[in-house]
Amino acid sequence: MNPNPSLTELCPLDQTNDWRPLYITTGKYSGLSIVECKHCKLQALFPRPNQKELYTKDYYQGKAEYTYIDERDHKKFFQYVWKARIRNIKRFVKSGNFLDIGSSFGGFLESAKLEGFSVQGVEISEYASRYANENGIPTFQGDLLDAKFPNESFHVITMVEVIEHIENPNLFFKEITRILKPGGLLLLQTANFDGWQAKTEGPNYHYYMPGHVFYYSDTILKKILTNLGFSRFVSYFGVDFPLYAKLQKSRGSFQKWKDYFQWFRITFYHFKSKWKRNGFPITSSYVLYAFKK
């Protein structure tokens, strides 16, 4: 029996519709209802707000209650992370067609383009995608499923803090598999709910937000992608770029010299993310590189 009859989505791992209530959140975005698949323990937000109504111009300019840091204001500092990530990607895929889903204003793709990739974005926001197109980053405005890219179009597909926003993951994962070339790389950055940080903080965990729909783990993502024909994985507990890039990026938000003391906290968390307890990471920061057969 499904305890939430209106939650009609099948679990993207076990293809069942058998959810149970888990939490009412108590963190920054309190009062959200979290449910869990009884079989594989995947979590979901339900009921949920209208996703399209969340991503307004105010969201992209950092002015909404649920919001996004406008990357254009801190581009000089964001580039440290973008460039470091591209360098790591090039350890596996040297060149080719590069798709970023949830590409926002196109800053990350601009860095990929400078490194020799042929780039394409997908962005739901008309406001952000228009800016990217006007600045030479080809960006499809809308949902990936509506873009209808040809089969095996891309050597690299990236989704940085995006997969948790997707409302139809079954269709979405299949579409990613269809358009990724054999041997191609899929990069996913999200929270890892195998991590102790998510487990111990429970309903107070900061990653429970109105725009996040499904909550994954390293174990669950690998099982989903293995079922779709992915055969090799590299998991980064923390991030897939060096601490130096993270510290340089943080400078974009500093306003006085005392802010540099935050580097101690950032450095501690960076190294803490590499530690494990009983086989599971201490933190829930996470990036997965998955390679299609």
Automatic annotation (TrEMBL):
GO molecular function: methyltransferase activity
PANTHER family in alphabetical order: METHYLTRANSFERASE TYPE 11 (PTHR43861:SF6), TRANS-ACONITATE 2-METHYLTRANSFERASE-RELATED (PTHR43861)
Record keywords, A-Z: Methyltransferase, Transferase
Gene3D superfamilies assigned to the protein according to its UniProt record, in alphabetical order: Vaccinia Virus protein VP39
Protein name: Class I SAM-dependent methyltransferase
BP-aspect Gene Ontology terms: methylation
Species, as recorded: Leptospira bourretii
